[in-house]
Design goal:
Layout: E1 2-8, E2 18-24, E3 31-36, H1 44-68, E4 77-80, H2 83-91, H3 109-116, E5 120-123, H4 140-151
Parallel strand pairs: 1-4, 4-5
Antiparallel strand pairs: 1-2, 2-3
Protein name: Reverse transcriptase Ty1/copia-type domain-containing protein
Organism: Cylindrotheca closterium
């Protein structure tokens, strides 16, 4: 399972950020989500943490659901394009600097899931982040590329 999670920082009139996510089993998107975040964040890194927290229950539930259906999930990968957020998600407070010390411990739930082996976090360059399609208006070639990846192969 490949999850791509992204956030657009402070894009709403009340300066709240936006979460987008896609799940793929290889071709096309089996599950997508796009929603306004309930909290204001102070940085794009914090918005990315909130985005992962918004989607983590879907990530874990989908893994369990597939396993209960008899499909063992060997790799449950979460892709992100913000390396600072990845460090915080993998290492928790150990990677927190002066600006990130105030982030609520609630958002380090993902750190526990990484340690338990339920999810693995990997970097995905922004140009390949399909979840961008769910967080902001895209145009031209990038729109067509992500649309085709989300819809899957067309005959």
């Amino acid at each position: 399972m490949k999850w791509m999670i992204d956030a657009s920082f402070a894009v709403h009139p009340d300066f709240k950020s936006h979460t987008g996510g896609t799940l793929s089993f290889g071709g096309g998107a089996a599950q997508v989500m796009s929603k306004k975040q309930k909290l204001n964040s102070r940085s794009s890194m914090e918005a990315e943490l909130i985005a992962v927290d918004d989607v983590v229950t879907m990530i874990l539930w989908t893994k369990l659901f597939m396993e209960w259906q008899g499909y063992p999930i060997e790799k449950n990968i979460l892709y992100q394009d913000n390396k600072s957020a990845i460090l915080l998600e993998e290492n928790g407070r150990k990677s927190a600097g002066k600006r990130s010390r105030a982030i609520n411990i609630h958002y380090f739930f993902i750190t526990d899931q990484v340690e338990k082996g339920n999810v693995k976090i990997e970097y995905c360059p922004t140009d390949n982040m399909i979840a961008d399609f769910m967080t902001k208006p895209l145009q031209g070639e990038k729109f067509r590329k992500f649309r085709d990846l989300i819809l899957g192969p067309q005959d």
